[in-house]
Specification:
Layout lengths: L10 H8 L11 E4 L5 E8 L8 H17 L6 E6 L2 E6 L10 E4 H5 L13 H17 L9 H6 L2 H5 L3 E3 L1
Parallel strand pairs: 2-3
Antiparallel strand pairs: 1-2, 1-6, 3-4, 4-5
């Protein structure tokens, strides 16, 4: 008897199948999935000492985002760059990455999840975890009834896509 249930594969498994060698797999820092497991956002995160005010760092990160978006072979509508100062969100139409459509102060968003955010150096791994906590809170309201920047995220259409979703890295 043939099993007819559909088994979902993850973003990373798709990327692994597309790669010819395991060394070829380059991943965004994390992805946000909608309630059906479809990727709706990819993110690059740079903690201390890096930031996207350095034009070379920002340009390289944007090129990486475009590479990920093109390699996905499905439309991923949003991309995000996060550093300790700013969260930049872009849209992707399948061919072009927009200029940032919205910019948030990182501390304003993430200090709800790390109260001493402004008083310490936040390195990349921890910044990624805090950013994922915020995105998961937007999706599932695990900490706050109204997470930071919910209104702005709804205005650009991202909040609705995140509803009941999750993140993966």
């Amino acid at each position: 008897m043939v099993e007819s249930s559909r088994q979902a594969i993850t973003w990373w498994e798709v990327r692994a199948m597309q790669a010819t060698n395991l060394e070829d797999i380059d991943r965004p820092d994390f992805v946000a999935l909608d309630k059906d497991g479809q990727v709706v956002l990819i993110a690059e995160v740079k903690g201390f000492p890096y930031n996207f005010k350095e034009e070379k760092t920002k340009k390289y990160a944007i090129l990486r985002l475009i590479d990920y978006l093109q390699a996905a072979k499905v439309l991923i509508p949003f991309a995000m760059l996060v550093d300790v100062k700013n969260i930049l969100i872009f849209t992707w139409d399948g061919n072009n990455l927009s200029e940032p459509i919205i910019c948030f102060n990182t501390a304003d968003a993430l200090s709800h999840y790390e109260p001493t955010f402004c008083n310490k150096q936040i390195f990349s791994l921890y910044l990624r975890a805090l950013t994922e906590a915020w995105i998961n809170d937007l999706a599932r309201h695990w900490k706050l009834k109204t997470p930071p920047f919910s209104k702005e995220m709804a205005e650009i259409g991202l909040l609705q896509l995140l509803e009941k979703g999750t993140t993966e890295f």
